Amino acid sequence: MTPQQRPRRPRQRRRRTALVAALLGAAVGAVALTGAPVRPPTAPAAAPTPVPVPAIVPAAEARLRPAGAPPTVYAHRGASSAAPENTLVSDEVARRGGAEWIENDVQPSKDGVPYVLHDDTVDRTTDGKGRIRDLTAARLDALDAGSWFAPAYAGTRLPTLAAQLEDLRTRGGNLLLEIKGPHSRDEVARIVQEVRDHGMTDRVLVQSFEVDALRHARELAPELPLGLLRGDLDADPVATARDLGLAAYNPSDDALSARPGVIGDLHAAGVAVNVWTVDRPARWKALTAAGVDGIITNRPAELAGWNAAWSASGAAG
């Protein structure tokens, strides 16, 4: 997401995060908060030969919301309102809160290792300084990515994409993976190889604001479904979806609010609609009624609970 979608720091967060840390218990050790991340291969494998792909991913693979079902919960940077964003512990809090999908960002280190980080720099969410692309993997591995959020998370590490994929593969969950910022074809190939190496191609949806990155991903890995992030809607979202071979079109809440009719147009083309970043129940209700397939939120446990209440109330019928 954009910098404007960064989770805010509530005044009572220390008390809340202490409670979350207590609830996690053994889970903190299970995700190896202070241990070294799983390291990827030192060089990407040769790119596969491109093969033709359909203009639109079949509806069965587009994650369209079944009739009567609540929208899918996508945990924005993990449970980013309750734990340090884009870390394995944030993913674990989201998973325990009922989120089946984690949304995270990926960018390369100076030596080409994909890391899970939103900002261009490590300044805001670690004890380090500098652009991620200027820092080596060894330097990134040594950073504390938790103390900025609360003392309970001191020693939390910045995960590699490999570490996150392995965590999801073994502990459960799916990944809405944002390729953050411009990426070369080789950099996208490294991301694709990580997903394949961990056997996660059927549990990852790749999204990006960067059209070129999506085109690279489509060419390199036609088996991976793609989503386009948009702050403003295209003049013709369906035509854009056909051009890029999208499984999902993922606009901001503000953009979708201005033209909610595009949801039906995209559904008719077999394209899912996932909206970001929405933290208010009133908007969850309106978006669910409008037919969105998924909601990206900083409050995944609360949205999962709201979904359960919505289903139990008979609103689905």
Describe the structure concisely for a colleague.
The protein is α/β, with parallel strands linked by helices. It has helices at residues 13-24, 26-30, 88-96, 137-141, 161-171, 185-197, 211-220, 237-244, 253-258, 262-268, 281-290, 300-312; strands spanning 72-76, 101-108, 114-116, 174-179, 204-208, 226-230, 248-251, 272-275, 294-297. It is globular and about 50 Å long.
What's the SSE blueprint?
Layout: H1 13-24, H2 26-30, E1 72-76, H3 88-96, E2 101-108, E3 114-116, H4 137-141, H5 161-171, E4 174-179, H6 185-197, E5 204-208, H7 211-220, E6 226-230, H8 237-244, E7 248-251, H9 253-258, H10 262-268, E8 272-275, H11 281-290, E9 294-297, H12 300-312
Helix pairs in contact: 6-7
Defining traits:
317 residues; alpha/beta; TIM Barrel; 12 helices; 34% helix
Could you explain the architecture of this structure?
The structure is a single chain. By secondary structure, the chain is an alpha/beta fold. The chain has a single domain, classed as TIM Barrel. Helix content is 34%, strand content 14%. It contains 12 helices and 9 strands. It has helices at residues 13-24, 26-30, 88-96, 137-141, 161-171, 185-197, 211-220, 237-244, 253-258, 262-268, 281-290, 300-312; strands at residues 72-76, 101-108, 114-116, 174-179, 204-208, 226-230, 248-251, 272-275, 294-297. Strands 1-2-4-5-6-7-8-9 form an 8-stranded parallel barrel, surrounded by 7 helices. α11 (281-290) links the parallel β8 (272-275) and β9. The longest helix has 13 residues, at 185-197. The protein starts with 12 loop residues before the first helix and ends in a 5-residue tail after the last helix.
